[in-house]
Amino acid sequence: MIETDICVIGAGSGGLSVAAGAAQMGARTVLIEGHEMGGDCLNYGCVPSKALLAAAKAAAAHRRPFPGVAADQPEVDFSAAKDHVARVIAAIAPHDSQERFEGFGVQVIRDWARFTGPNEVEAGGQRIRARRFVIATGSRPLIPPIPGLAETPYLTNETIFAQKKPPGHLLIIGGGPIGLEMAQAHRRLGAMVTVIEGARALGHEDPEAAALVIARLKSEGVEILEGVTVRRVGGRAGAIEIEVAGGTILVGTHLLVATGRAPALERLNLDAAGIRHDARGIATDEGLRSSNRRVYAIGDAAGRGQFTHLAGYHAGLVVRSAVLGLRAKVRTDHIPRVTYTAPELAQVGLTEAEARGQYGARLTVLRHDFAAADRAQAEAETLGFLKVMSVGARPVGATICGTGAGEQIALWSLILANRMKLNALAATVLPYPTMAELSKRAAGTYFSPKLFDNALIKRVVRAVQRWVP
């Protein structure tokens, strides 16, 4: 029997943050991981996908015409690009390693955990009893019940990065962020790509922004079929067939299933600990505690969103509550998300449609095209726009679609997280020329009518000019 203060189940980004914080603050800490240290983000998600997208971006840069610079056809070595992905994972892995966390004083057990009671789990042939548990087991690919899929070779985000040979024609079921990121990356690296989406591609995003992304992918040769239902999947490695509604047969060499993710909770025996859960994840209160007050759930396991940075945010709240005994309350209105296609699509807070539904006529939408930014003109990257949703002078959401949108959304994440008003940004001096000026310009747009179209202001100015020496 191991007696401990904090037992963290899952060594992804959220679990690692809790374990490191708890141990370094003096709590006895056990960390249990049955698979890879670093979790999905390091091994199968954020890190490898962005590394592959970087290789694809380099290939696309050769093909892009620019004034004074001739475009050419790059020589793409798909296997070498995948080697780059592996090197990036290897370079980051020590930060998430067992050895590093043992150096913090964390006891690491490499096995799957299973609850045997409300305050006890077993793993690695040992029983662990803890004052507090943190479930940070992440999520797994959600595989839809498509006839024939189980008998057909297919890839998910957990297996596609190990493929060293380029697919001749990659078929992708799912037009969400993962599906479209992988579609563009593989197209730019030489593969034919077809995406099949049953509803609208990037259906959770601002429609205007999603349309820009989809149009760019189509212009690069990605076939995107929206509103198309998959009826059946069949074939063998190198010869995959997908039958869609209407009887059309799509043929490709490889199949990627990117239809979403489900919380990875199956092994935990949650019922033995009295932990309520469903297909969306573990039910938690505003402090991320489950129905068992000893047990917290964070990240994908908590069913509140599937982002690495969200898991990190949850981890900070749990350290505050479980380790320091302070009150913690989760928020959702300031969590950003980015689809890392080209152009990028970034969102924080409410979309325009969500804000209109919530605030109606009280809403002001401040919109500027990238073409209005001098930096965008200089770099010939004028495709895109910024849209800020504001109620009075308080922003409630921001949408950015264009080059570097993921970096630019950070400013609006700061503003929403700290509940700042537009005047804080309007009063900020930004370097020229930068894309960030577009955000300041949007803030200034809100105040311009109040200054320049105000009869009282004009009378005051005329009086000042006449009477003040």
Automatic annotation (TrEMBL):
One of its GO terms (molecular function) is flavin adenine dinucleotide binding. Keywords: Disulfide bond, FAD, Flavoprotein, NAD, NADP, Nucleotide-binding, Oxidoreductase, Redox-active center. Binds 1 FAD per subunit. Its cofactor is FAD. Disulfide bonds join C41-C46. Residues 5-314 form the FAD/NAD(P)-binding domain. Residues 335-442 form the Pyridine nucleotide-disulphide oxidoreductase dimerisation domain. NAD(+) binds at G174, G175, G176, P177, I178, G179, L180, E181, E197, G260. The keyword GTP-binding does not apply. FAD binds at K50, T137, G138, S139, D300. Belongs to the class-I pyridine nucleotide-disulfide oxidoreductase family. PANTHER family: MERCURIC REDUCTASE. This is Dihydrolipoamide dehydrogenase.
